Amino acid sequence: MAGIGHRRGHDSSDGSVAGERTGNVAVTAWPDLADALVAELVASGKVSAPEWQAAMREVPRHEFVPKFYELRDREWREVTPESEPVRWLERVYTNKPLVTQLGELHHGGIGPTSSSSAPSLMARMLEALDLHDTHTVLEIGTGTGYNAALLAHRLGDERVFSVDIDPNLVDAARQRLRHAGYEPHLAAADGAGGWPDDAVRFDRLIATCAVNRVPPAWLRQTRAGGLVLVDLKVGTSAGNLVALHSNGDGTGQGHFLDGHSAFMLMRGETHPPISGYPQRNRRQAHRRHTSVMEERPWESPVWWFLACLSMPPGVRFGYTLHPVTEQPAAVSLSCPDGSWCEVSLEVTRDGRAVWESGPSYLWSAVEQARDIWTAHDQPEWSRLGLTVTAGEHLVWIDGPTGPRWVLPPSSSVVGAPPPGECSAERGDGGHHEQQECE
Ligand SMILES: C[S@@+](CC[C@H](N)C(=O)[O-])C[C@H]1O[C@@H](n2cnc3c(N)ncnc32)[C@H](O)[C@@H]1O
């Protein structure tokens, strides 16, 4: 175990207790709060390995999140030890992601560009890494440095490497890590290239941002037999964590993990277009009925992911409002290639009416995915896998010889509206970008 940590504090020359104050705010309660958080994660089955329980008890998360942002009344507000001392500390030791940096988003607005992930998601990923004492690990997405500190607590500084594309984040993380007693290797670089020194090899790679494609450098810099753990997304929202066994040559294969993960997309990935979507005119569309009764197939993550694998790039979806009542009357999907569909929410004897217009029939992709998913007993994520070769990414059910899909071109899907929330398609299509939560 490396690093002095600040769990119970240690006396410094000025008589204060290091790690026990942030500015003028007493943080003496943090060990109890950390203990309570770990107890909660253990009780809910999110963490079991003693070494990760110890790391989460002993690494002071508050030193890595000196402030965070929360959305109140549609405005981002800063929460700091000075503005809300008690709430700040309690929130830091709550099982929630905390937004730690705001910036300009791809579609123009201001939103999260870095965050400290939900502790349960972090614990789940750390356990899934299956680390041994002698392993070296590369993290993509240093952010606050908290995850790097947990890794350094477990493996020692020398075995931990972490990169972030934002040099300011790396500088701040370096200082906080040092203050907490850790000195892993850090670099400011585009994580798509892995660690900047391409000669270095790792046993494990953990990405804390999502990708549309697994960069070849990750599978090349991870030794044969090593693991690459990453949130693979079609577009910005459909997909999940996958653990790939590297062949050491830029290729690999492995299964998706059960559970849910929604990391912000790695900067540099192709984002869906924000304009160029077709006007929908039902009179010019093919009309039929569907037996799919689910109003929100995107709330069934595996089915929705499989559907997205057969859709053209840039699918956005939302609701069509009734012109008089202004209540949702139909679900809509549309693509910049001119494809669109609307599916009535009204159920008749024949099912629900569908209007579809090509070149791709989008609702047919949803139906076909449902048929395959159902024919295979509605598999959970862990029955799905991914094979990455030099030329393509292949998604499969129950093995590469089972039903399989080649990953479509990047940026296929614009994010889903949060469950229960209806949004008319007004150009944002329910798009919520750069969100990370569990
Ligand atoms: C969810 S945050 C990481 C949280 C971090 N692991 C922690 O413990 O605080 C995602 C991070 O990925 C970084 N990132 C985004 N695109 C990147 C890229 N192309 N290369 C490296 N880092 C990137 C962001 O700057 C952000 O800090």
UniProtKB/TrEMBL annotation:
It is found in: Cytoplasm. Keywords: Cytoplasm, Methyltransferase, S-adenosyl-L-methionine, Transferase. Its main location: cytoplasm. Its EC number is 2.1.1.77. Belongs to the methyltransferase superfamily. L-isoaspartyl/D-aspartyl protein methyltransferase family. Residues 409-438 are annotated as: Disordered. PANTHER family: PROTEIN-L-ISOASPARTATE O-METHYLTRANSFERASE (PTHR11579), PROTEIN-L-ISOASPARTATE(D-ASPARTATE) O-METHYLTRANSFERASE (PTHR11579:SF0). The keyword Metal-binding does not apply. Residues 423-438 have a biased composition (Basic and acidic residues). It comes from the Bacteria. GO terms for molecular function: methyltransferase activity. It holds the Pfam family PCMT. It is an enzyme of class 2 (transferase). GO terms for biological process: methylation. This is Protein-L-isoaspartate O-methyltransferase.
